[in-house]
Amino acid sequence: MTALFLRDLKLSVRAGGGALIGILFFLTVVAVIPFGVGPDLKLLSRIGPAIVWIGALLSALLGLDRLFQAERDDGSLDLLVMQETPLVLTVLTKCAAHWTATGLPLVIASPLLGLFMNMNEMAIGATALTLLVGSPAITFIGAVGAAVAVALPRGGLLVSILVLPLTIPVLIFGVSATYAAVEGPQPFLPPFLILMALTLFFAVLGPAAAALALRNTTD
């Protein structure tokens, strides 16, 4: 599992510059909002957490189609399915590597991009924390879409279409927790705990469903 994690981590960084492309797209989405909204700093500060979350969500969708594509291209996908290690653990490891290479850089970049939106320290910290907790759920959900579309031509667009509606609850509770921490008087903990529960739920359901889809694909 460790060797697979390191291998996928290297492939995620090298293959098309996935991590760099995600950060650049994240930067582009967040940076153009002030030009469209105008110089209203109070408005930017108010909508900042939602914009950062939306930008991170869209950026996370970019590289999901490559989650199993390398194994499909070189024929090793069949070996992964037939190996003694449970396929669920293999998918979980690949999801962890993918998030480390593409999702974690978005979390690290979010405080800097929060400055573009005139967000205060509390808003920046809350946004980064909710992204750290919630963004893995996007990867686990995306693994299912990537497994379903791995054998289809132009599967990248299909993955985004399949995954985006399922990530809406993660977006809602991530933004709600951030606003609760910044504005109050709503408590921060309930939406944050729900966000954690969503991540844990999809950490179990996502790899299992993706493994089932991969087995059906290779049959």
From TrEMBL:
Subcellular location: Cell inner membrane
Matching InterPro entries: Cyt_c_biogenesis_CcmB (IPR003544), Cyt_c_CcmB_bac (IPR026031)
Keywords: Cell inner membrane, Cell membrane, Cytochrome c-type biogenesis, Membrane, Transmembrane, Transmembrane helix, Transport
Sequence intervals crossing the membrane: 12-37, 43-64, 85-108, 128-150, 157-182, 188-214
Membrane topology, as annotated: Multi-pass membrane protein
Stated family: Belongs to the CcmB/CycW/HelB family.
Function: Required for the export of heme to the periplasm for the biogenesis of c-type cytochromes.
Family annotation (NCBIfam families): ccmB
Name of protein: Heme exporter protein B
The species this protein was found in: Rhizobium mayense
